[in-house]
Design brief:
The chain is an alpha+beta fold and 596 residues long. The protein has 3 domains: 2-145, Creatinase/prolidase N-terminal domain (Creatine Amidinohydrolase, Chain A, domain 1), CATH 3.40.350; 158-292, Creatinase/prolidase N-terminal domain (Creatine Amidinohydrolase, Chain A, domain 1, 3-Layer(aba) Sandwich), CATH 3.40.350.10; 301-592, Creatinase/methionine aminopeptidase superfamily (Creatine Amidinohydrolase, Alpha-Beta Complex), CATH 3.90.230. Strands 4-3-2-1-5-6 form a 6-stranded mixed sheet, with helices on both faces. A 6-stranded mixed sheet has the order 12-11-10-8-13-14. The N and C termini lie far apart (55 Å). The relative contact order is 0.09.
Length: 596
């Protein structure tokens, strides 16, 4: 089927005299997770992961994806002509290098300019220019061959009350306008959906588990325009936005709106976010101020209301997960269980919590060897039956009105090997050491990553992803610009200075293909610590409350300090969670949070 689709695409390419066609994983807003309408790369390759780029030539087709998906992609591509290119691996060309090599002199490169950001579009433009070639970016060729393509999402939008957001829309727009003045901008084009949702305190459901509204914003020093599918807005929202001074316009009118900018305008855009067609629609002569959106940092630094709500959300989530873990470990081997049925049980426990809205991403429930695939997704074909032995890795989370959560626990379902216990304990030590960091203000996650990765590097081990990512407030579960990573990866944009109020995950792991995967993940709030003659020190508050499976821990492999860190964490978990449990669950939790 995939090979047939590729041949259909090649016929469309031939009609337009295209030599290469590129299909990224993107919507019109450079979102990490996209709605069903935008899953063109999945359609043309069969690879279902959230990140990847397909490139089709007249004779070859390739898929580029990162280390989270190497195993999954290899499995999903094996029955097609699509070749896997492992991003970041030595000797593997980048997408741009591949296109540069394969594009013939005077050749033509095609892509939909709405799903490629300006920065990448300009890189490709330069490559094509050097080959004396041309680019065709006005058509979505996948649309011409995708007969049963889902329609563009138009789910109802809703407003997030200030008791959860902690700041009014007027205040947020004022702050953004102040930053515009400092930058010399009179106009700001905002296209990233999480930034728009944050700015306007609006949420929706236009991508699975990603509560955003498909929209664009043009903000001037006096006015604001909101480009959106109008039918998703209630009368209440229209009235409220009118009070804010926000004009509602049709979603697709953004391109004509930017064409109307006057030649003496000074327009702030983020070329890593604004799509190539929007940028190319801005008239010649307009001064472009290319900077990260001012909302990026504002959104990442949670206010006091948001932080207090986040703590409440994690208590709810901790109760749900603890009830699930109790049920799992006391019933495995006694009743039938699979990766999917246990995942459903966990979702049901979350749904019982007040103000639950949705999962924050598709739950990863991965038994034994399946756990070695970082972003494994159980299907009817792959779903494993759980046995009272080995490891089950569960990475999951939820959206509540009080915030979003992301937690991973690896649990022993019965006897495990010495190797599994050794690696579980190393991952635990990695997690605890990072969470206990005390550091001077000015550090980024690049400075601190070694605290987590060090115990694994000592054994010549590593994991092919960052150690942690920022988390949005009732938004996307991966949020820039904060994160933990050992090297700079420009496209991830997670190397910012760690500010008080930022929330970042701490999730080291071990992934051994064909054997098992281990990950332990908590969320950390960055807080101010002591201040002295050396400067302002910072530290972390752990806000994920759920037991770490003591059945898999080797206390002898931990230092005295590390055992104390674990004991202190488990004491906090018991105090936070036990008041919400039944008596049997409470006794179980007492055992699984005991001192070691």
């Amino acid at each position: 089927m995939i090979n047939e689709r590729i041949e259909s695409l090649r016929r469309e390419m031939e009609k337009r005299h295209m030599d290469i066609y590129m299909v990224p994983t993107a919507d019109f807003h450079e979102s990490e997770y996209v709605g069903e309408y935008f899953k063109a790369r999945r359609f043309i390759t069969g690879f279902t992961g959230s990140a990847g780029v397909a490139v089709i030539t007249k004779t070859e087709s390739g898929l580029w994806t990162d280390g989270r998906y190497f195993i999954q992609a290899a499995n999903q591509l094996k029955n097609s002509e699509v070749k896997l290119y492992k991003m970041g691996v030595e000797g593997v060309p980048t997408v741009e290098e591949f296109i540069e090599e394969k594009l013939p002199e005077n050749g033509c490169l095609g892509f939909d300019g709405r799903v490629v950001n300006t920065a990448q579009g300009q890189k490709l433009e330069s490559i094509v220019k050097d080959k004396n070639g041309t680019m065709k970016v006005e058509e979505d060729l996948i649309d011409s061959i995708w007969e049963d393509r889902p329609s563009l999402s138009k789910e109802p939008a809703w407003l997030l009350d200030e008791r959860y957001a902690g700041e009014s829309v007027i205040s947020k727009m004022t702050r953004v306008r102040e930053e515009m003045k400092k930058a010399g901008a009179d106009t700001h084009v905002l296209t990233s959906l999480d930034d728009i949702a944050w700015l306007f305190n609006i949420r929706g459901n236009d991508a699975t588990h990603f509560p955003i509204v498909l929209s664009f914003v043009i903000l001037t020093l006096k006015d604001a325009e909101f480009f959106v599918n109008e039918e998703v807005l209630s009368e209440e929202i229209r009235k409220t936005f009118a009070e804010y001074g926000v004009t509602i316009r049709k979603y697709e009118e953004i391109y004509d709106a930017v064409k109307a900018f006057s030649a003496n305008s000074h327009v702030w855009i983020d070329c890593n976010k604004v799509n190539y067609r929007i940028k190319n629609s801005i008239p010649e002569g307009v001064e472009i101020i290319n900077r990260s959106n001012p909302t990026l940092l504002m959104k990442a630094v949670k206010n006091k209301t948001e932080i207090e709500n986040i703590r409440k959300a994690h208590v709810k989530d901790g109760v749900a997960f603890t009830k699930y873990m109790y049920w799992l470990k006391t019933n495995v081997g006694k009743i039938p269980m699979t990766e999917i049925t246990t995942s459903d049980y966990l979702e049901d426990r979350r749904k019982e919590q007040e103000n639950f809205l949705d999962l924050s991403f598709d739950t990863i429930s991965a038994y034994q060897a399946n756990g070695a695939m970082m972003h494994y997704s159980a299907t009817k074909e792959s779903c494993a039956e759980l046995k009272p032995e080995g490891f089950l890795l569960v990475d999951s989370g939820a959206h509540y009105l009080e915030g979003s959560t992301d937690i991973t626990r690896t649990m022993a379902l019965g006897p495990i090997t010495e190797k599994q216990k050794e690696y579980f304990t190393i991952v635990l030590r990695s997690n605890l050491n990072l969470a206990a960091a005390k550091f001077l203000y000015g550090c980024s996650g690049l400075n601190l990553d070694i605290l987590s990765r060090g115990p694994l590097w000592d054994l010549g081990l590593d994991y092919r992803c960052g150690t942690g990512h920022g988390i949005g407030y009732l938004l996307n579960v991966h949020e820039a610009p904060n994160g933990f990573r050992w090297k700079h990866v420009p496209e991830r944009n997670d190397g910012a200075v760690l500010e008080a109020g930022m929330v970042t995950t701490d999730e080291p792991g071990v992934y051994l293909e064909g054997e098992f995967g281990i990950r332990t993940e908590n969320e950390l709030i960055c807080v101010e610590d002591e201040k002295n003659e050396y400067g302002q020190f910072m530290s972390f508050e752990t806000v994920t409350y759920a037991p770490i499976d003591l059945d898999a821990v080797d206390p002898e492999a931990m230092t005295k300090k590390e055992r104390k860190l674990l004991n202190d964490y488990h004491k906090m978990v018991y105090e936070k969670i036990s008041p919400y449990l039944e008596e049997e669950e409470k006794e179980w939790l007492k055992k699984y949070t005991r001192e070691i």
